[in-house]
Amino acid sequence: MSFSAFAQLVALSALWGASFLFIRIASPQLGPLVLAGLRIALATLTLALIMRALRHRWPWQHTREMLWIALTAIAIPFLLFAWAGLHLPSSYSALINTSFVVFGCLFAAWMKVDTLTVRKVVGCLVGLAGIGMIVQLGPLDLSPTVLLACLAALLASFCYGIAVPLTKRALTRIEPLPVAAMTHLWSMILLTPLAIYDAPQAKWSTSALLATAVMGIITSGIAFWLHLRVVRHISSTAGMTPAFMIPVFGVLWGHLFLGEPLSSGMIAGAALALVAIALISDLKWPVWDAANAKP
């Protein structure tokens, strides 16, 4: 992976990491189902407007393929993580979410869209260790409900792992923007009935709606499209590396804007996450050519 692609993934991870701040604002007021449904609806509208402006066609001939990606990349994980978040601390969800890199590597190798190497396996283990240090897991009562919540989060990560090679294969034949728009459209169709059902329980407020708007338009709509544009030109496993960077930025933004503590263990964990990314993505650093450098 080139340094340019790596820099773009870091920037996207910074945006996705900021989502933790907005979720903390919106989810307690709107509820997970309404938040997920409204977020996806705004993302779909945003991508549809961009599709129209750039005169892209909807890939209706690939409806079944887009449906599978929508289910595994957006709809099912959003629902499972939304439910798990009612019973699990966010730190546990963040750690379990990074396991999708392991699943993604395995599925990518099985579907022959990428190769599984010892270096990538070591990178996955280092990344999981780093995220464990970042989220600082505390004691948790392992009740049946909590165990089911952990299982739901793990299943959501499993779905993400399936979605990675499916998306990579689709991008070889379809432009990134139509893929992003069509998968969000399907997800909106699937989640809207649940959001409408839960809407009477929501506590509507300006802060919650503004937070949801930022997530829907920017982090779920535009950022997802930009991510697919990068993934199209790199390996599927390299495209998964934001999973290790998102918790890093989530902790950083929480420290800067919410005053949450930042320990030496978190900093060390962030360093391990960056090492994992370099191992998995086979990062190629830019070389400075002294002979051709301009004064």
Give your account of this protein's structure.
- The chain is mainly α and 295 residues long.
- It has helices at 3-30, 32-54, 63-84, 90-97, 100-110, 118-135, 144-170, 176-198, 206-231, 236-239, 242-258, 264-281.
- The protein has one domain (3-281).
- The model is unreliable at 285-295 (pLDDT under 50).
What can be said about this structure in brief?
With 295 residues, this protein is mostly helical. It has helices at 3-30, 32-54, 63-84, 90-97, 100-110, 118-135, 144-170, 176-198, 206-231, 236-239, 242-258, 264-281.
Uncertain runs: 285-295
Cα(first) to Cα(last) distance is 29 Å
* Helix share, percent: over 70%
- Rg is 19 Å
Provide the β-strand percentage band.
Answer: under 5%
What would the average pLDDT be, to the nearest integer? 80
Task: Output the helix-strand order.
Answer: HHHHHHHHHHHH
Pick out its properties:
295 residues; mainly alpha; single chain
List the helices and strands and how they pair.
Blueprint: H1 3-30, H2 32-54, H3 63-84, H4 90-97, H5 100-110, H6 118-135, H7 144-170, H8 176-198, H9 206-231, H10 236-239, H11 242-258, H12 264-281
Helix pairs in contact: 1-2, 1-9, 1-11, 2-8, 2-9, 3-7, 3-8, 4-6, 4-7, 5-7, 6-11, 6-12, 8-9, 11-12
